[in-house]
Amino acid sequence: MTDEKGIIRLRPGKEESLLRRHPWVFSGAIASLPSDLEEGDTVAVYDSRGNVLGAGHFQIGSIAVRILEFGTDTLDDDIYFRRLSSAWSLREALGLIRADNNCFRLVHGEGDFLPGLVVDIYGDTAVMQAHSPGMHFARRAIADALTRLPDARIRNVYYKSETTLPFKARLDPQNEYLVGSFDGAVAIENGLQFNIDWLKGQKTGFFVDQRENRRLLESFSAGRRVLNMFCYTGGFSVYAMRGGALQVDSVDSSAKAVALTDANISLNFPDDGRHRTFAEDAFKFLADMPADLYDLIILDPPAFAKHRSAIKNGLIGYRKLNAKAFEKIKSGGILFTFSCSQAITRDMFRMAVFTAAARSGRRVRILHQLSQPADHPVDFSHPEGEYLKGLVLEVE
Ligand code: SAH
């Protein structure tokens, strides 16, 4: 402890990762910190020789500081507006802001140099999640900056951090509108419409990270019988319908998710008899269904390994799930299989799926290797930002 206000000093040699612009300071790297420091405070971080490394948000835990600006000891008032403006410009450059596409991720935490913050855009509404106390305290400044983005015309900002902030910080965040008040909208993704319920839905209400993978699925759908496991809002199902699938069956264990899927199918394809939903456990559904029924299967489960400690069991889960699909898919069928577990690497996932394929005795070829889209950028200095991986496989 020291009494230097807002200053954290590192132990010798512990500045290395910060010099490479990795934005996290782990608690074990700290030599001294002020006695009056509170969660969410802005701090300046110095190396053991007194050189300034950067400024960021402090929190109690293994990640003690998230650096927002390198090479300086203060954060200026304008930082959120600057970062959000450049995030917006990137999405514009990526061609994501169009009349037929108004939903995308505007801020992907460290990938947009705003560690601890996620913002998804649905038309004129921004849904914001804080993962750090610092971002929680900055929420009003961020909401204000969002409404000032000149081309964005954001009219509502919904703050949804009840489940994302560290529980121990006792911040008691309320999910609430910081700006405006509008409780739902139809978002447009690649010309398809989706009801987005950020008040009651999972995460920010929709999984925008599968947008490009859904589009790829559409191109495989013509004339196929499609099974969309873990369908949630039915994203993949709606694309399969547009792609000309003969039949699309969507499965989710949550009755609410199945209702969302039904609503989204009706919104885009009213009175179209090709679609059915099943509120059932995915493993049971796969075990009970007859073989050779489907020739296009999507497996997009929730993260099976939320932490490193769960990697082993997570991999067993992926192996078992994929094994069932290999056992049942029709000859010549296509499998879209995903993992969104950050702790499970691309190689680990690939090995789990390979093991499942090998045990099935079927010949399997990799057609595409998929990842998260460009509006979920990964800072080279922060590889932890990579989480979504997928394979498109052809099963002989
Ligand atoms: N594919 C979706 C996102 C999937 S999120 C999309 O493109 O938007 C994961 C979903 O899996 C959730 O909706 C959750 O309700 C469902 N789920 C979790 N465990 C399940 C299980 N054992 N069987 C079926 N569905 C499950």
Task: Give the secondary structure arrangement, pairings included.
Elements: E1 7-10, H1 16-19, E2 24-26, E3 30-32, E4 42-46, E5 52-58, E6 63-70, H2 79-93, E7 103-108, E8 117-122, E9 125-130, H3 133-137, H4 139-148, E10 156-159, E11 176-179, E12 185-189, E13 192-196, H5 211-220, E14 225-229, H6 235-242, E15 247-252, H7 255-268, E16 275-279, H8 282-288, E17 296-299, H9 311-328, E18 333-339, H10 346-360, E19 364-371, E20 389-395
Parallel strand pairs: 1-4, 9-10, 14-15, 14-17, 15-16, 17-18
Antiparallel strand pairs: 1-3, 2-6, 4-5, 5-6, 7-8, 8-9, 10-11, 12-13, 18-20, 19-20
Helix pairs in contact: 5-6, 6-7, 9-10
S-adenosyl-L-homocysteine binds next to helix 6.
- Any idea what the shape is? globular
Mean residue pLDDT:
95
- Helix count equals 10
Separation of termini? Answer: 64 Å
Can you give keywords for this protein?
6-stranded mixed β-sheet, binds S-adenosyl-L-homocysteine, 7-stranded mixed β-sheet, 10 helices, 396 residues, alpha/beta, globular
